[in-house]
Amino acid sequence: MLVFKFGGASVKDGNAVKNVAKILGLFSDKDKVVVISAMGKTTNLLEEMVAALKDMNYPKFDFLKNQCYDFHLTILDELFAEKTHKVYLELEAIFEKLSEKKEDFFSENYGFEYDQIVSLGEVISTLIVDAYLRELGDLSVWIDARKLLRSDDNYRESNIDWSKTEELIATNVKPLFQKSKTLITQGFIAHTREGFTTTLGREGSDYTAGIFAYCLNAESVTIWKDVPGMLNADPKWFDDTIKLDKISFKEAIELAYYGATVIHPKTIKPLQNMNIPLYVKSFVDPNAEGTVIQESAAFDHLVPSFIFKMKQVLFSITPRDFSFIAEENLSRIFDSLSQVGAKINLMQNSALSFSFCLDQEKVDIQEIISLFTIEYEIRYNENLELVTIRHYNEETVNRVIENKEIVVEQKTRQTIRILMKDALIS
Ligand code: ASP
Ligand code: MG
After folding, report:
1. Which residue has the CA at smallest separation from atom 7 of ligand 1?
2. What is the pLDDT along the chain (426 residues), one digit of tens a residue?
3. Nearest ligand to the CA atom of 199
4. Whose CA is nearest to atom 5 of ligand 1?
5. Would you say 157 and 200 are in contact if contact means Cβ atoms under 8 Å apart?
6. Which ligand is nearest to the CA of 40?
7. Helix, strand, or coil here: 418?
8. Residue (of 202, 296, 208, 285) closest to 243 by Cα position
């Protein structure tokens, strides 16, 4: 039994959906659960719709809703010759329901409202792909992840109830393979004990694939992407990237921790527990090797990986009473930062100062200052770049620090992290 995951880019238009069907055809003799995300940028559009509803900006809501409807309608037209196919009615019904949201009471629980609406992107995309596969004669079965994945009610970032989910998937999904080899389901969404829809956090469809694989003890998971596999750097910052052929689960978790964005970080752990390999492959070139993430760490050191975080701001705070930076004020500092939801990318301390680095675009600098200004003197430095190199050597370090001035450097045996800024060229 295989688990496949297709993200938004792999179903962004009619041709993309046709390509998904082609890939599934390569595995026609295998049982598979196929996890699919919302098409293209649908999730962003739905997020904007929720915001418009909250603001009671109904003209904007209608505008976005029509845009979203037309986008999906175009895809249907590209896939189906017969405009009377029942999937057209299904699409219409979903958008009609969405329209009724204007009359509904928008509760104070924004996360709840968000999840009821944003989850529809995945529902729509899977209905379309399933209908298309059936049209081709592959008798796929559409299954509703909102009835199979049980979570708590931490809306927008819900946590899986593993034992309940295992039970639900074992009893309801396994028997379906007697009907069909291809089960189509939604990434990203789950349900609470009361039956309300939840989402698992943005980009959470990978995690759904990991959950199904764990619960069904799958042979492997494949994430189909528009890149040839996991690369050793983001091609946005590097022109000569190298594909990682084989890395360990542990290495994949390390890379995700430092900011590599290829796979949702929560995906790896359930797979590691069951020793289920995870393939990252290209949906453009499905026969190419891709990357495999598995138990053995023997290959981890072969290729150095670079993770860049641009636009960083470094704060340094010094107690006004000249007390040392020690356990007591550290726990106070962390407490304050976690209360405002700040995510520290790097930190360091000396006797009298504590420094921490945050994403400039995700923080309100004045808010951070106001947290500490009574007891601490604060300085900050903007527009820095943080690079992490796994399995570094002198050459790789020299490559990234060229024309840069180093602000902070931290090293362990496997990892170097350098916070730097553009050097003033005289
Ligand atoms: N559609 C969701 C998102 O865009 C989940 C996913 O794509 O993984 O965040
Ligand atoms: Mg997506």
Report:
1. 203
2. 999 999 999 999 999 999 999 999 999 999 999 999 999 999 999 999 999 999 999 999 999 999 999 999 999 999 999 999 999 999 999 999 999 999 999 999 999 999 999 999 999 999 999 999 999 998 899 999 999 999 999 999 999 999 999 999 999 999 999 999 999 999 999 999 999 999 999 999 999 999 999 999 999 999 999 999 999 999 888 888 999 999 999 999 999 989 888 899 899 999 999 999 999 999 999 999 999 999 999 999 999 999 999 999 999 999 999 999 999 899 999 999 999 999 999 999 999 999 999 999 999 999 999 999 999 999 999 999 999 999 999 999 999 999 999 999 999 999 999 999 999 865
3. 1
4. 203
5. yes
6. 2
7. strand
8. 285
Q: Which residue has the tokens 């995510």?
A: 343
**What residue's CA is closest to ligand 1, atom 6?**
203
Q: What is the DSSP string of 356-413?
A: EEEEGGG--HHHHHHHHTTTEEEEEEEEEEEEEEES--HHHHHHHHTTEEEEEEEE-S
Residues with CB under 6 A from ligand 1: 7-8, 37-38, 43, 121, 187-188, 202-205
Beta sheet of 2-6, edge-to-edge order: 141-142, 182-186, 32-36, 2-6, 220-225, 278-282, 291-294, 246-248
Ligand that lies nearest to the alpha carbon of residue 263, given by its number in the listed order? 1
Task: Give phi and psi for 390, each to the nearest 5.
Answer: -90, 140
The alpha carbon of 186 is separated from its chain's Cα centroid by a whole number of angstroms, namely 14
Residue nearest to atom 8 of ligand 1 (CA): 203
Among the listed residues 148, 64, 155, the one whose alpha carbon sits nearest the alpha carbon of residue 113:
155
Describe the chain by its helix, strand, coil percentages, rounded to 5: 40, 25, 35
The answer to whether 75 and 128 have CB atoms below 8 angstroms apart is yes
Are 193 and 150 spatial neighbours (Cβ–Cβ below 8 Å)? yes
**The one-letter amino acid at 399:** R
Give pTM, 2 decimals: 0.92
C-alpha 114: how far from chain center: 17
Distance 294 CA to ligand 2 centre (A): 24
